Amino acid sequence: MANRQSYWYFGGLASAGAACCTHPLDLIKVQLQTSQEKKISILRLTGNIVKNQGITALYNGISASLLRQLTYSTTRFGIYEAGKQSFGNDLGFLGKVALAGSAGAAGGFVGTPADLVNVRMQNDVKLPMEQRRNYKHAIDGLWRIYSQEGFTKLFSGGSTATSRAVFMTIGQLSFYDQVKALLLSSGYFKDNMFLHFTASSIAGGIATCMTQPLDVIKTRAMNAKPGEYSGVLDIVRHTAKLGPLGFFKGYVPAFVRLGPHTVLTFVFLEQLRMNFGFFPEAK
To answer: What SS3 state is found at 3?
Structure first.
């Protein structure tokens, strides 16, 4: 039998595939997080978008979402998989947590520019016509931010995005591996799609709980107009005016989006690994 493995780029491809399926949920999550209304339902917001902009508006920013996954997720999965293969069985759970955190920090930083464009493009549909940025696609958005607002603006919200990516990667990658190993050791599971679905569902729930407050702050920072906030603490104070639950705005769509996204990412990843990730046996 050939030794199956995950190549460094499998995670980025799997995440991009998952993003194509879950993008509308991500768009609704972003719009909820940038709203100052205390109570606005998911159905009402979705209905408003479809009514005013059409069904295709739910895919606003898809090019930026794909670019984000191909930068952010390729980096974090690539570092994590390379680290696991280097350390082998000597890497325990705490080692995987540390490795995932480091991989997430790198991925969060690399993916910040695409994430910035993604947030802005998704939020555009709820702005008045005269305030919309109207980026044609992700590359156009990157160029216009660079030329109009400066290079450093491309990394606006980068510290929060990086912190969030650390917790996200720990919640997803290290916990997925740990849960998968525990389920396999129970004797009730085999290494098949049902195992991948179960382990990734649990990992998605853990990741959502760990990252939601940071996700709200990151989204507000990236969508802010120049000078709207003086810094991260100012965003925290502004969000706190809505009460403690203000930091969990968009939690339901975040979970509804992140759960399926995590499941689809790992199902796609495992299929890539099982069908294309192998070294031929040495003769």
So the answer is: strand
For 133-182, what is each residue's pLDDT tens digit? 889 999 999 999 999 999 999 998 888 889 889 999 999 999 999 999 99
3-state secondary structure of 225: coil
Spatial CB neighbours of 144, under 8 Å, sequence gap ≥ 6:
133, 135
**Helices vs. strands in the chain: H and E counts, helices first:** 11, 2
In this prediction the pTM is 0.81
> Is residue 203 scored above 90 in pLDDT?
yes
C-alpha pair distances (Å), 179 with each of 105, 141, 210: 22, 39, 16
End-to-end CA distance of the chain: 12
CB-based contacts of 152, cutoff 8 Å, min separation 6:
none
Please choose, from the candidates 112, 146, 143, the residue with its C-alpha nearest in 3D space to the C-alpha of residue 222.
112
CA nearest neighbour of 15 among 173, 223, 175, 219: 173
